[in-house]
Each structure stands twice: as C-alpha cells, then as structure tokens.
Amino acid sequence: MNIKSIYFSVIAVLVFSVGFSQVEISQKIQDSKIAQSSENKLYFIDFWATWCGPCVYANEYLTVLQKQFSNDFYVVSLSEENSAIIEKHLKKHPSELAVFSDFNSQTMKKFGVQFLPYGVLINAYGNKLWEGSPTDFKPNDLQRFLRRSNIRGNVDDVFIVKNNNLSESSIQDYKPTKPIEIKRLNTVDNLSLEVSKEDSYVKLEGNLQEVLSYLLKTHASQLYLSKDDNASYQIYVHTSVLEHAFDEVLEELGLVAETLTKEKECLVMDFKNAQLWNTHQIDWGEDAESFLIGDTEIQANDVYLDDVKFRLSLVLDLPIKYINIKDFNTSLHDWQIHYKYYSLMEQNLLDVYGINIEKKNDEITTYHIKKAPK
C-alpha cells in the first residue's frame, strides 16, 4: 500500500470515529435470530415494555419487516425494564428480534421517548433519520433510507453496554408496602413525567406539577406551584387509591390546593349529541396496556373519558374542558382519535362520536398548590 492510500485510509477512519454516536444500553439479552449480518447500514430501535399490550403488535410488525430486509437492516427491541423482567417475559412470549435492556433509561431520555410503542431509525453513525410509531414505518420508507446510506457499522459498535456499575440488588423489583409511597429525588433538574405500571401499582416519576396533573387527569398548565415546591419525586400509588391519590399526596407533602377559575386557551368538547363507542370496538386482551399513541392518532381500549382527555391534552399541549357531559365519564369506552391536524380531528370527533369541539379562550378550573397552614 502506498503512502497516499495509507493517508486516505487514516482520514476515513478518523472521519468515521469523530462522527460516530454510540447508543448506550445496559445489557444485551439476545441477538437477532433473523438478521443475516452484524454489519448493517441502518438500525431500528423499537422502544417497548413487557406491560405494553400495543407493543406486541408493533413487535410482530417489525419481525415481518426484519425478515423482509434481513441484510443491511437490524431491529433492536429496547426496554427500560431490568433484564430479569425481560427474560421472564421472553419465556412466555419469545421474540426473534434482538432484545436489549436500557435499565438506566439513558437512550429513552436521549431520544425523548414519551409513549410506547415508539421507534427510531438510525444510521451506522447513530444519527436519527426517522421516529414515530413503529407500525407507521413502511417498507418503502426503509428502502428509501437504505438507498441513501452507504456506511456500515457493527451492532457492537453502535450499541455500547454501559451498566453504570449497577449492583444486582439495585435492579431488583421494588415492592411498595403502603398504598402511597413518596420519595424525593436528589436532582437539580425537573424531570419529565414517566409513568409505568408495576403489578397493582402505578409508578410516577417526575416533577410534582406533572405528577399531580396525571393524578387529576388534567393539563399541567392548570396547576400552579412555587419553584421550591415543584421538586422531582418518585411516587408509587396503589390502583385501589388512585381516585383519591391527589389529595393524599398533597397531605403527605404538607401542601393544599386552592381551586379557582381562569380564562385560558383550551379545547372545549361538547357532548350534547355524543354517541360514544362501547368496549367491543377494540380488544387488545386483559393484560394489555390501554393506549396506543402514534404520530397522528390515539387508540384506547376500555378506558374512561378522563383518561382519554388527559392523553389528548398531552399530545395537543392544551387544556381540555367538557360541556354537556351527561354520564359518559362513568363507563368504559374504546377510542380512535386523530389529533395531528385540527380540522381532521374536529371532523373525526364529530363524525365518529358526535362530539363538537372548539378551540377558544374560556374559563377553566385551575389548582393553586401552596404550603398547608400550620
């Protein structure tokens, strides 16, 4: 090899190394049983959880896609649960895809994952090319990105194990012993809300404003807290006390809520002529998660109206107000709501459910959280 060839080879290696962005994981549970090579142009990260029913369909869809494109393309199913939980799940529900653990949640936080299932396509440099609901990623999308990608990267170079010295005891499932358990987190950052279901408990982790908004099933902008009170917490709530958890959490923290009204921009939903779906339109099974939230629509299986309102307010980043509600919030319903484009959402809600919506400034309930009087 002459000097000129060596020079350009060294430059190529340096350029690849400088541009390369590794994806951190905690453990590799299993390698892909379908992909033909560990050297690939593109990698698809399938964010999922063992409790997520809609993730099962996404996994099946990606398995078919992986079989269609067994060369140059590699799917990784990534869960933030610990390896023991994942391995136990795989014994009952085997998967042919690569399955890794992101127990320290670094990769989920890096890509800003808010809902499951969720997918991110990256190239061999670790650069994000596409993101959204995995089932929205079509074969022609993959073919287009493959044509544009020339660099290959080894799966072991793209996904790097970073266990952060987690001891075996630190990754065991914590079992709460009280209906509500609250732990203040020692962090200078106000964490974004993370919600996970663990047996008969709901685990909430994030700043207090967002935790309380989840318990109230209302938009976070309707709650007012001082900066000192809006710390980050980890809170376990037993499902049997969820209905009253807002008041109990405040009491344990020595806080009270004053309920007022304020004019704010909101989405007003009028149920005067509504005819909602029953629970026979969608069926994901008893142990499935209730929601499937994609880039354009929300689907829900057997959920109350307040839960749908809360999820819709999150994706719209807007408070929601009911009028002429009748008794719709006392029974379970199935839902399929488009939310990305307002005009389509408006027509969808009217045509499918008879719900009129209007975005306007209106009086809504607000909650002013402050220290309880001594």
TrEMBL record:
It holds the Pfam family Redoxin. Gene3D superfamilies: Glutaredoxin (3.40.30.10). Residues 30-126 form the Redoxin domain. It comes from the Bacteria. GO terms for molecular function: oxidoreductase activity. PANTHER family: PROTEIN DIPZ (PTHR42852:SF13), THIOL:DISULFIDE INTERCHANGE PROTEIN DSBE (PTHR42852). This is TlpA disulfide reductase family protein.
